[in-house]
Design goal:
The chain is α+β, with helices and mostly antiparallel strands. The protein has a six-stranded mixed sheet, with no helix packed on it. The chain has a two-stranded antiparallel ribbon with strand order 4-5. About 6% of the residues have low confidence.
Length: 186
């Protein structure tokens, strides 16, 4: 098979395949793979999705924020929700200042929204029971249909950002892996 590949590259059946030719072909493909990976990573870091609330064309990745803003956001989750979040799953809209966290669905598959299904709907997950919640941004009342938890976009004075928060007094899930295991056992 390798001989057929080299034959297709050299296009000369009378020319023998040398070890140098093999090394060159392998290096060529390895360099191509590395180049595709580097370009893909660069493009993925530059592309972002629009804010589903205000329509701003590009939300920011958490790592793009200033260090003091990053600390303020992480402190909010520790203080208000009693949990730590994975920074790679946080996005922030620079216009409406909404923080999309690991329950927001922004890091999960957006295939239904991207395919045009549920047009105008925003998908998120309940922070109490991990049930899918569909709502429109203009909805006055956002509720989980499974556990009946009411949600709202609540501003936080300390950080200056707005967070999707359940009604006061509800216990927020802190270990998503444990919850997923529990739900699959049912």
């Amino acid at each position: 098979m390798l001989d057929a590949l080299i034959l297709a590259i050299t296009r000369d059946p009378d020319r023998p395949v040398t070890p140098l030719t093999l090394v060159m072909v392998v290096l060529f493909f390895a360099a191509g793979a590395v180049l595709v990976g580097v370009i893909g990573r660069w493009v993925s870091r530059r592309l972002a999705f629009p804010c589903r609330s205000c329509g701003h064309p590009r939300v920011q990745f958490f790592r793009q924020l200033a260090p003091d803003e990053q600390v303020a956001i992480l402190e909010y989750f520790e203080r208000a929700e009693g949990r730590s979040v994975e920074p790679e799953h946080l996005y922030v809209c620079p216009q409406c200042r909404r923080v999309l966290d690991d329950f927001s669905g922004s890091h999960r598959s957006r295939d239904m929204q991207d395919a045009g299904l549920y047009y105008g709907m925003i998908r998120t997950w309940c922070k109490v029971c991990d049930h899918v919640i569909w709502y429109r941004d203009r909805d006055r009342e956002i509720r989980c249909t499974q556990c009946n938890t009411r949600y709202e976009w609540r501003p936080d004075e300390a950080s200056g950002y707005v967070y999707f928060a359940p009604e006061p007094g509800r216990r927020i899930r802190t270990d998503r892996d444990e919850l997923q295991e529990r739900l699959t056992d049912l």
